[in-house]
Amino acid sequence: MKDVIRLSGLSFYGYHGATAAEKETGRVFEVDCELEVDLAEAGRTDQLADTIDYRQAYDVIKETVEGHAFSLLEGLADHLAASILDRFPVYRVTLRVRKMNPPIPGQIKSIEVELTRFQKDTSKLVDNQ
Q1: How confident is the model at residue 103, as a pLDDT?
Q2: Active site residue 2
Q3: Which of 35, 42, 55, 102 keeps 20 to 30 A from 6, CA to CA?
Q4: Angle (nearest 5°) at CA 111 between 108 and 114
């Protein structure tokens, strides 16, 4: 287990859903993101260059949620994971993606999908031990 950076409670408006109405009117989506990384060097140097820039990770998530349309939360979450693994030297990413006030009869605050994906391209990883 490496160290973890968490971005929690990110909120965006997106047009994801299986129905035409959801794709037309949109909904609020929340995202929690956990990045498993080695933070030893960043801890020693206190330099942004030695860690993941949280703003860049936020921007990747925002761009995906607001700039694409998926029928399923599973598709959105999988695309988010692939984008993060492609752009950052992380060992693992875990995402929780929630659709707030889903169009389901009854009292329901959200629907959530959680998935974990691992870095396959080990050349992106740097062990600082």
Answers
A1: 87
A2: no
A3: 102
A4: 150
**What is the rounded average pLDDT of the residues 59-85?**
97
For the cut 80, the answer to whether the pLDDT of residue 36 exceeds it is yes
Structure tokens at 98: 């929630």
Of the residues 2, 99, 109, 120, which is catalytic? 99
The structure's pTM equals 0.90
The residues, ordered by sequence, that sit 6+ positions from 21 with a Cβ below 8 Å of its Cβ are 103
**CATH fold group of domain 3-124:** GTP Cyclohydrolase I, domain 2 (3.30.1130)
Q: Put the strands of the sheet holding 27-37 in their side by side order.
A: 3-14, 27-37, 92-100, 110-118
One-letter amino acid at 2 equals K
Domain ranges of the chain: 3-124
**Residue 91 in contact with residue 119, Cβ under 8 Å?**
yes
Average pLDDT rounded to a whole number, residues 34-52: 95
Residue type for 21, please? A
